[in-house]
Amino acid sequence: MKGRWIMGVACMLVLISMLSGSGLAEQKGNLLVAAAASLEKVFTDELIPLFESANPGIRVEGTYDSSGKLQTQIEEGLEADLFMPAAMKPMNALVEQSLVMKVSVTPLLVNRIVLIAPVDLDTDIDSFECITQAGTIALGDPQSVPAGQYAQEALTSLGVWEQAFAKASLGTNVTQVLSWVAEGSAEVGIVYASDAARSDMVKVLCEAPEGSLKQQVIYPAGIVATSEKQDEARLFLDFLKSDEAMAVFERHGFVRNP
């Protein structure tokens, strides 16, 4: 009986030793990625599971919202490790405040803005200039939503911003705009091409015409300066730059930034 007890204890010690040399000892904690709402599906459905599978000691969590809101949250102390907005403006603002490491910032992706309508809606609207023909329009709030800022810039350059704004409902992020159009609450809306690609409830009427935006829609990524897991954040950022990750992004309607 005593021999069996000793053997049992020995087995437990061996098991503990094995576990301490494996994933439990290697567990490095959680990474928090603060990313634009338009990235939520590609991150949660594919990219994060791929990364975690290749790096079992690291767990990645995401918080997704408008880039302006995430910028404010980081300024107010959100303990994020990586920031990936849908525009350079919020990234540059955090770099200027030394809240994101400038050397880590990578202009990773290019997106486009498109005019969408419910998939079953019969409409003659086929250009950004014709948006004012719609009775109801969904846009991201230009105060905090990059997609709304791009929409305002394009519509202003085409001379129809004031008329469009008078008919607009302003969403707190681009996902809300997509939802309003998909459910028919708005006749048309402006979202990213990647958002339109992930919904079978909307159809693309047209892209923003060439020249209506001064700059491309760039998605940068950068490591938060106050992160206590910068090495792990760098691993995730390197993964996002990889050919494997880029193939996933492209399937979701994004384009690699040259």
In short:
The protein is of the alpha/beta class and 258 residues long. It has two domains: 27-110 and 217-256, 3-Layer(aba) Sandwich (D-Maltodextrin-Binding Protein, domain 2), CATH 3.40.190.10; 113-207, 3-Layer(aba) Sandwich (D-Maltodextrin-Binding Protein, domain 2). It is 42% helix and 22% strand.
Overview of the molecule:
Helices cover 42% and strands 22% of the residues. Helix 4 packs parallel to helix 5. Strand 1 (30-36), helix 3 (40-54) and strand 2 (59-65) form a beta-alpha-beta unit. The protein has helices spanning 2-20, 23-26, 40-54, 67-75, 88-96, 146-157, 161-166, 174-182, 193-197, 230-241, 243-251; strands at 30-36, 59-65, 82-84, 106-111, 113-118, 137-140, 168-171, 188-192, 202-207, 217-223, 255-256. With 258 residues, it is α/β, with parallel strands linked by helices. The N and C termini lie far apart (70 Å). It is built from 11 helices and 11 strands. The model is unreliable at 5-27 (pLDDT under 50). The strands form 2 sheets. A 6-stranded mixed beta sheet has the order 2-1-3-10-4-11. It has a 5-stranded mixed beta sheet with strand order 7-6-8-5-9. The longest helix has 19 residues, at 2-20. It has 2 domains: 27-110 and 217-256, D-Maltodextrin-Binding Protein, domain 2 (3-Layer(aba) Sandwich), CATH 3.40.190.10; 113-207, D-Maltodextrin-Binding Protein, domain 2, CATH 3.40.190.10.
